[in-house]
Specification:
Helices cover about 15% and strands about 30% of the residues. It is α+β, with helices and mostly antiparallel strands and about 425 residues long. Strand 11 (about 165) and strand 12 (about 175-180) form a beta hairpin. The model is unreliable at about 5-15, about 80-100, about 260-265 and about 275-285 (pLDDT under 50).
């Protein structure tokens, strides 16, 4: 074992997760594979991914997660640490451009990666600080390459085509490429027009896949999996597909509060009626927050309590932000809703200031008051500010007005002195 690898293990031990001594170890009930197998898992970029450590020896009280890129050697394996003692708990503080070290957390032996990127694809291994490996994943993060609007009249299987690739000389079938779509999401709004979204991930069917990578079907793997031979290198340019369609659903009617007159509540009839009427008039609480952000920089807004599988929508004031309006076929606009349901500004501009609302499961749950202010960096001159001409006009007018008042005061003062001197004579 090389000294560099031993040093990595010693550093990783400080950032590992240790199980409480007084609680049962439920993760030790499942036996680990005799040979380390890489379980294939595919997700769209921007999603939050959880990789559970499904097995480990019962005597092991702490785990360390290791990472290496696909088709790399064992020397490239490195221990993961966020340099903060794995205290990264709030995913809203993470930007899209952050490094992998600042976008993961270890919770109860599971590895959580926030706002995944294509660069996060690779082999993730759950092990110990002594260099033992227990469980491994073959993670494939696919960037959304195609955006499309689907009519409700379109058949479900119309957009799912299979592409075949054969050998140039032999003519034998090498592999097939197809897209597997997830179920449509819940309608993201109620009472008004909303949208449903579904993600399609790229998969390959071939008999030449690596046998050490575990899948539900041994002849099928995701396009970016390590099981795909390097000879199929063009597959790395394949990505996920994002489809959306319109929907209209009515808001659910909440059940009235149960009567407590017959119970021992200690309230009189009049007090109970007043209490019940006040409760009925209460509206669902909306979390209000305020945010200041410099212009010409990337801004990401997250919905509190949101998960990737939930239906989430965004409004600016009273105007809804629809994916069909902010998305051009095959391109990404400046303001968009990403695969993780975050509202992304690339970059934010001064005119983006305003009030934004977040919908979660068909209800408004958050209000974000955004102020985008001018930011003058080292490479951004003051003259590039669009408000500079109007600011100069205001300054010059104010200076002219103060100069006129000053001259008027001096003139009046001189006139008064002249009249006093003439009266004395």
């Amino acid at each position: 074992m090389s000294p560099l690898f031993i040093l990595l293990l010693l550093l990783a031990e400080a950032w590992s997760f240790t199980a409480p001594r007084d609680k049962p170890n439920v993760f030790a009930r499942k036996a680990c594979p005799a040979i380390l197998i890489f379980f294939n898992a595919a997700y769209q970029a921007g999603a939050t991914v959880e990789l559970p450590c499904h097995c480990k020896p019962e005597e092991v009280q702490s785990v360390v997660w290791f990472f290496r890129e696909h088709h790399s050697y064992g020397e490239a394996t490195r221990a993961l640490s966020d340099n903060n003692g794995t205290k990264l708990l709030d995913s809203t503080q993470i930007t899209h451009s952050s490094d992998l070290r600042s976008r993961f957390s270890i919770r109860l032996f599971s590895l959580l990666i926030f706002r995944t990127a294509v660069e996060d694809s690779g082999i993730y291994i759950c092990g110990s600080a002594q260099g033992d490996y227990f469980y491994a994943y073959d993670l494939d993060i696919q960037e959304v390459q195609e955006l499309s609007f689907v009519s409700r009249l379109t058949p479900e299987n119309k957009s799912n085509s299979v592409e075949e690739v054969r050998g140039k000389r032999s003519g034998l079938l090498l592999y097939q490429i197809f897209t597997t779509f997830q179920p449509w999401s819940q309608c993201d709004r109620c009472g008004v027009q909303g949208e449903q979204v579904r993600v399609g991930l790229c998969y390959i069917r071939s008999r030449y896949l690596h046998v050490r990578f575990k899948r539900l079907n041994q002849s099928i793997a995701s396009c970016g999996s390590g099981a795909v031979p390097q000879a199929f290198g063009q597959l790395k340019h394949r990505g996920a597909r994002l489809e959306f369609r319109d929907c209209n659903v009515s808001c659910p009617i909440e059940a009235p509060p149960t009567s407590k007159v017959g119970k021992k509540t200690g309230l009189k009839i009049g007090q109970w009626i007043q209490h019940s009427s006040s409760d009925a008039m209460k509206e669902p609480a909306i979390k209000v927050s305020y945010l200041n952000h410099p212009a010409e920089q990337i801004l990401t807004l997250g919905c509190p309590g949101a998960q990737t599988y939930m239906a989430i929508a965004w409004d600016k004031g009273s105007e809804p932000i629809y994916r069909s309006q902010t998305t051009t076929e095959g391109t990404f606009p400046r303001i968009r809703i990403d695969a993780g349901h975050h509202l992304v500004f690339t970059p934010a501009q001064i005119e983006d200031s305003g009030v934004f609302y977040c919908w979660l499961k068909g209800r408004r749950v958050a209000e974000i008051n955004l102020l985008v202010y001018p930011h003058f960096g080292a490479r951004m001159p003051v003259t590039s500010n669009p408000d500079l001409p109007s600011a100069l006009r205001i300054i010059l007018k104010s200076y002219g007005a103060m100069t006129a008042v000053f001259c008027l005061v001096i003139t009046l003062r001189g006139c008064i002195r002249y009249r006093r001197g003439k009266t004395i004579r």
